[in-house]
Every structure is written in structure tokens, then in C-alpha cells.
Amino acid sequence: MATSTILSNPKVVIATVDLSDQCTAATLTRTIEALEDTAFGSTARTYTGGLENNELTVTMYMSYAATETYATLSTLVGTKMIVIVNPTSAADSATNPGFTLTNTYLEALPVINASLGELQTVDLTFTGGTYSADVTP
Known about the structure:
The protein is mainly beta. It has a single domain (11-134), classed as Elongation Factor Tu (Ef-tu), domain 3, CATH 2.40.30. It contains 1 helix and 10 strands. The chain has one helix at 69-73; strands spanning 11-14, 17-18, 23-29, 32-36, 47-52, 55-61, 79-86, 98-106, 121-127, 130-134. The strands form 2 sheets. Strands 1, 2, 3, 6, 7, 8, 9 and 10 form an 8-stranded antiparallel sheet that branches. Strands 4-5 form a two-stranded antiparallel ribbon. The longest helix has 5 residues, at 69-73.
């Protein structure tokens, strides 16, 4: 049984710019690649941890206004940056860690995704980078 619930209202900061007001979804997956270390004579495969291969996927409204989605992200394609995602908009703490990817890479930016009668959204994927969780207020 769940002992706590969080009403999802995360904070999303990309390259020092808070884009939370444009973000509708965020999924940060921490991955450490499995390297097989099974030896002769073993009766089952075994693995050891390899390199981290982290990924952050965000869905954002596409705004072309100054300091909004397109203006912020268009210069970041093909570069490394720091992104931070918190479960809520409150300050970092043990119950609201700031999950950080340092030197994560943005490979592509869909510049338009338009459909009649719908708000434009784009899905962005940030790959790689060193993962950390900041719990210091």
C-alpha cells in the first residue's frame, strides 16, 4: 500500500532555463549497461555493471516566443548540457531530489509538429550524461 503520493508537477530545467511551464511530461531513466561476465563452468549467465547510458524524454509545448521552447532549445541541438528534473516545483530535499544529467546530449529538435485544432507539442530525448540526485536544500 502506498504511503505517500505526489501530485505530479515537476520542475524541468534545461541548460539553466526553467521550462516547466512548457513541459507536459518527463521521464528520466537511469541505465547501467549489463556486461556479461559468465565464465566457463557456469550454469547460468551472470552480469556486471558497465557504463551508464541515461536518458531523459520530455514532451513540451512548442512556443516560438523569446526565451521559450524553440528559442531556448534551437541552439542546444548537437551540444552537451545539464538538465535537472525534480518531482515537484519545491526546493531540493530528501523528498524532492533534483535528478541531474550532466553532459547529456540533445541530438534532434523537431521544429514543428502541427495539427489542426491541437496545441503543438514536441518530444525531446536527451541521451547519456552522468546521473546524480541532489537532496540538499
